[in-house]
Amino acid sequence: MSQETVKDRAVTVEEARKIILDLPLKTLQSERIPIEEAYHRILSEDIYSQENLPGFKRSTMDGYAVCSADTFGASESLPVYLNIKGTIKMGMPAEIKINRGEAAEIPTGGMLPEGTDAVVMYEHTTRISDALVEILKPVAPGENIVMEDEDVRAGQVVLRKGHRLRAHDIGALAGIGITEVNVYKKPVVSIISTGDEIVPPAEPLSPGQVRDINSYNLYGLINQHGGVAVKKGIIRDEYSILRRVVEEALNDSNMVLITGGSSVGTRDYVSRIIDELGAPGVLFHRVTIKPGKPLIGGRINNTPVFGLPGHPVAVTVCFDNFVLPLLRRLTGENTRAYLPDSRTVKARVTHNLSSPIGREDHVRVKIEQRNGSLWAIPILGKSGLITTLVEADGIIVIPQHSSGIYEGDEVDVRLF
Asked: Which is nearest to 414 in space by CA: 394, 399, 386?
C-alpha cells in the first residue's frame, strides 16, 4: 500500500500495527547496572555461566548419604544395616570418605561425601544406635540428590539478549556469581498535552475547562511498561508553540506522544507538524477502531510520533494497541507473538453487544463471579468518561468482521 493511499482513508487495526512494527528504529545504548536494579530491565547481551550450579553434589532431603548399591533389596521385613561414619554439616565441605557398608548423616543441601551417590530419607530409616542405621527402603543412583551441574553447566547460556529480567532470573544470576549485567537504556517517551481547555490538576476550573487526565494516565502506562515518561506540559492550540515543543521533544526522546490534537478541525496542527519536521511524516490518520479512530501514526526521521485522541478511554485503547507494541520494541525486548501481551481470562458476557462490521470495538468490562463462573459486565459510556476505565477490570474486543457478541458468549478479557 502506498503512503498516500493510507493517508486518504482509515486503516484497519492490523494495517496500523504492521506499519508501526515495520518502522526502522534506532538501537538504544546499553548500560551496566547491579542485578538489584535490573528487575524488569532488558538484557543487551547473552549471559553465559562461568561455573556449574550448584557446583557440588548436594542432598535434596534430610537423611543418610549412601552408596545406592548397599540398599538394593532393603525392605521393612528385611532391612539393610549400615555403619554411620559421620555427619555432614551444612555449608561445609564433606571431608569424610564413605566406604561400602557405611553411611553419613546429611541435611537438605548438604554436600555428598566421596563414595556416595544417593540419599535415603529419614522416613525410610530407623536409627539403631549412634553408630548404626537400619535402611528400610532401597534408593536408586542419583535419588534425592542434585548433581554438581544439574541446574547450570559452565559455558551454558543462561539468559538471552532481549530477555526481560524477572525476579527468579535475578536469583539465577546471583546463584552463578553474576552481580552486574548489561541492559538497554530505557526509552524516553515525551508526552505533550494540547488544548486551550486543559488545565493542571491543582488549578481551579473555569467554565469550559477540564483538568489534565491524559498525561498522568500515559505517564503511568509508559513507566509501567519499561519506558521513561517525560511530561512536556500543556500546550495551547497555537501552531508555532506546538511545533517548537515537538522539535524540542524530538531532540531528547525516543518517542513522542501528542494528546488532544488528532481530531479533524481548524485547530488540528499535529498532522501538519509531523509532515513538516521530517520524513516520512504521517503514515496513517484514522484507524477503524472504537474508541480511538482519530489516531495519527507517524515518524519524524528516526523518531516515532503519535497523535492520540483527546478522550481518556481512547488514549488507553490506542496506547495498548499501537503505542505499547512499539515501546516494547524500543526497550529491546524480544517478544513472542504466540504469548499474550497482557493477562487474560475467559468470561461470559452478560449482555448482547452490537457492533458495525468493519470496525473493531473495544468494550470496557467489569468481572464478577456467579455460581463459580466468571462473567463480563459491559461498562458502557462515552470515551471521554474516565470512570468507565476506573470501574473496569479489563477490555473485550469485538473483531471488525463481527456484528457483535451475544449474551452468554465466552470471550477473552484483557485485564488492565
From this structure: 394
**Which cell numbers hold the place of 384?**
471521554
Could you tell me what percentage of the chain is helix, strand and coil, using 3-state DSSP and rounding each to the nearest 5? 20, 35, 45
- Rg of the chain over Cα atoms, rounded to whole angstroms, equals 31
Print pLDDT tens along the chain (416 aa): 545 447 778 999 999 999 999 999 988 999 999 999 999 999 999 999 999 999 999 999 999 999 999 999 999 999 999 999 999 999 999 999 999 999 999 999 999 999 999 999 999 999 999 999 999 999 999 999 999 999 999 999 999 999 999 999 999 999 999 999 999 999 999 999 998 889 999 999 999 899 999 999 999 999 999 999 999 999 988 889 999 999 999 999 999 999 985 555 434 789 999 999 999 999 999 999 999 999 999 999 999 999 999 999 999 999 999 999 999 999 999 988 777 766 899 999 999 999 999 999 999 999 999 999 999 999 998 888 889 999 999 999 999 999 999 999 999 999 99
Asked whether 331 and 341 are in contact (CB, 8 A), the reply is no
Q: Is residue 370 helix, strand or coil?
A: strand
- The strand pair at 145-146 and 58-59 is best described as antiparallel
Residue 338 lies in a domain: no
Last-in-domain residue among 281, 301, 331: 331
The CATH number of whichever domain residue 160 belongs to comes to 3.90.105.10
> Of the residues 267, 296, 331, which one is the last residue of a structural domain?
331
